[in-house]
Design brief:
Length: about 120
């Protein structure tokens, strides 16, 4: 092998209202979504993991779930719940704190705060 991937370069998905959904991601996760202005992520672990087709870890109706590495997970959860987003806090694991929710268009999101944050 002569080359390798060095990270995720982007995540592209269809939406009914890119402006509204972009504002939602900015408000709750600080992700600035705009043409020509990439979101500068911080270095850290990224898991690239195919799941079995019958996995129940995220909704079967979706082919993907994005995992967002975060700081201040409790504040993020409170902010999401304050606007009516259903958030399921998962049991803490050796890798950190996890929660699941969906964006306003039903795309599944896993929120992950690693232990070192």
């Amino acid at each position: 092998m002569t080359g390798r991937a060095t990270g995720i370069g982007g995540f592209f998905f269809r939406t009914k209202d890119p402006t509204a959904l972009g504002a939602w991601y900015l408000k709750h996760f600080g992700i600035a979504i705009s043409d020509g202005m990439p979101w500068q992520t911080e270095a850290g672990m990224t898991v690239f993991a195919p799941f079995k087709a019958d996995s129940d870890y995220f909704p079967a109706r979706s082919q993907f779930m994005i995992n967002l590495r975060v700081e201040g997970i409790d504040e993020i959860i409170k902010g999401l719940e304050a606007v009516g987003t259903n958030v399921k806090r998962l049991p803490d694991e050796q890798y950190g704190i996890f929660a699941h929710c969906e964006d306003p268009e039903g795309n599944p999101i896993e929120i992950w705060q690693p232990l070192d944050v």
